[in-house]
Amino acid sequence: MNTETIANLRQTLIERREELTRDLQHLQNELRDLSVEQDAEGGGTGNHFADDGSSLGEQERIGTIESNFREQIAQIDQAIERMDEGTYGACQRCGQPINEERLEALPYTAFCIDCQKFLENQAELYGAHASS
Q: Virtual CA dihedral for 88, 90, 94, 99, nearest 10 degrees?
């Protein structure tokens, strides 16, 4: 992979990281606002069950999205680190080059498509999480 392509992918990763960081801050503000609302309403005591459930569901939704954003930020940081080390574009499992089209679609990916499929199958079998 040539240096211009890597530089373009680095810029894409940096921009995506900035976007995720902004979105993460927005989610944290939403979560804080929900907490303030609950405190103002007596922390859920005395509310209608549907209101309590809706609030809890919203907090869980935000928590799940926040976790996904943090995971993607970590993957981006790892990809930039691999760029700095000169190992970017090589599968972290088998060492073979990752298809350039795959890297353009998922610039933070650490695995070639075959290894990714293998890891997803393993995760399905054993309940572990496989990264992109």
A: 130
